[in-house]
Task: structure prediction
Amino acid sequence: MQKKLMASFAFVLLLLILLLVRIATITATRGNKYAKQVLSQQSYDSRSIPARRGEIQDSNGIVLARSDRFYNVILDCYVINTDEDFREPTIEAAEQLLGLDSAMVRDRIMDEKTKDSRYQIILRDVTAETKRAFEDYCSGKDLDPETMGTDAYREEKRKRNNVKGIWFEEKYIRSYPYGSLASKVVGFSNAIDVGVTGVENYYDDILNGTDGREFGYLNEDSEFQRTTVEPEHGETLRLTLDMNMQEIVQEKIDQFDETYGDELHDGKGARNVGVVVMDPNSGAVLAMATNREYDLNNPNDLSTYYSGAEVKAMDDEEYVDALNTMWENFCVSEGYEPGSVFKPITVASALQVGAVNDGDAFYCSGNLFITDTSINCDNIYGHGDETLEYAIVNSCNVALMTIGMRMGITNFINYQSAFGFGQRTGIDLPNENAGVVYSRQTMHEVELATCTFGQGFTINMIQEAAAFSTVVNGGYYYQPHVVGQVLKADGTNVNTVEPLVLRQPISSSVSKLVRGYLKTAVQEGTGRKSQVPGYLTGGKTGTAEKIDLTTGRRAKGKYLVSFIGAAPINDPKVVIYVVVDEPNVAEQADSTYAQTLFRRIATDLFPYMGLYPTEPVTDDLLIFLGISRDDTVENHVKSAYFQCFDSNGILHNDAYINQDGLVFDSENKEISGCTLDRSTGIVTDGYGNQIEVDISNLLKDSAQVAENPNIASPPVRVEGDGEDVTTWEGVTVEEEEKEERE
Ligand SMILES: [Zn+2]
Result:
């Protein structure tokens, strides 16, 4: 009996799941069709007043998603047919003011099937202007009896009064003014205001308000009454993303695609490119982009990836799969082996538990035997003697494996968890891939060894960005997030997301040490190609050979290369993580692709953020990077252009203030006779005119050496033992979303 019950329960459950999947598919792809059916069932006497879905804005309040009011024109044939005199004036008005075909309107009114219908949509998506013009016409307020003559006036007035049975049904249409900008983060919602992807999906409930209603009823005296319940409009989300930074990142990714798109096979510069820009002192995501953004205004348009014939040949399931693939956010939903960008996390953990100390010496002969397995260093000839710092600088696997053995499996697993791996970060975006890590039961010496240098487990990009931020920011693990504020429809603040410290896995002194190692890695080590002339950055490269999912073996020749860096490294204000998954080149195993993209993004991003060059730019460095002085930040830091006179009385329209506070023209020549007051931002020109210039992001910040960060009350921890570190108890999390999709 029990068994039978269980079996039928399981069967019902299965049916329910199938139904849910089907509904999700329908709302994602065919929402429009079903919306029509629902609307057509509403009666005229009781109608819904739609709530406006909230906006999505960038951190500066620029609107990335909005809902505008439009109307459907509804024909009430029943009303029109109550009096023959209504018909022709109504048809005429529909033709003249709404541009409708009079034969079609007449047909609807007269046809046996529709003549009693009270709800026929005859026109969609008309503007408030059209509605007003129609209503003005019906009221006849433009008619003047004096110019027309009284008889003509009466006749016309009577005709217009007989326009009946046409009304306007309010609706909202979602649009995305910036098209594909931040498409993976913003996401889109369908015709019935169901968020399908991105923030639109994650915050669906907050964005959607509550519809109002207008309905008629009979009161105590049996009189017909109307009442209206006003809709409650949805709340507005203000993202942590900055549209300008997002544009810089997407532009550089596009350039990467252009550079390598045709290298090996036609198309993209890599199977995937992902970039996450994070504020390491809050966990706020400032920009997030892939090389597969799509137009949010046409989210079902697959033409970028498939030909028309290919789309036609797809069945329902293939079609939904193709859309899901295009909509997927690589930065959040893809699990992959991180490779060497994980090494700073291993080293920071080992320093924290006291398994190693700054200055410890290691020896690399090119390989190391772990039990009876020989595991190679990248440099198979060996790095020889090296300090802990140079284990990072050289990206030496042998040193890292040695460090892992000193730490032990338990410490390693505890810290991997404390840094947020093997669990979702909880970022406010859908379909986060938790990644798969070893548990205490499944990790043995060999697994420990490979995990120390970022192999044998999978992560998502947000996990790495958040963990690396922790390593460089003084040791604080912040909750990553993309929404910074929730605003009411009237613009008042409902909720501001304060930076949330979840734990402190390492001390600020360990953080400081590792920052130093990362700085050397960029100046002298594997990360040299990432150098941003003028800046002190720190970071780590990654070159991971991929696994062929069908065989479970290493996919020869297929690599995921990456770079993660922070600037300024002595007091990080920004972390940029670049992943290039299978660059479209013959020799993929080169992190230079990621490093160069990092440098190009940083060169535009840093001055925008108000980070100022602090270091001299040498010709040697420019030659090493293969760039000219024009490609450096020196030429990217300037104020907006303004007008001023020079000391000879010549007017310059192209004056700007450079990073040294001097007034230059667009040919980069100093304009004589102009001085800037740095405290007020006022330029006095050659004629003595005073011009106010916004210099807030230009002038050097003298307080850059401050230790970081200043958090009021960090979580209490005991130095050294690692025991009180918040540890995630479950160990292996399956890639649920992935399986669901497959
Ligand atoms: Zn080595």
Notes: The longest strand covers residues 554-567. The chain has a mean pLDDT of 86.
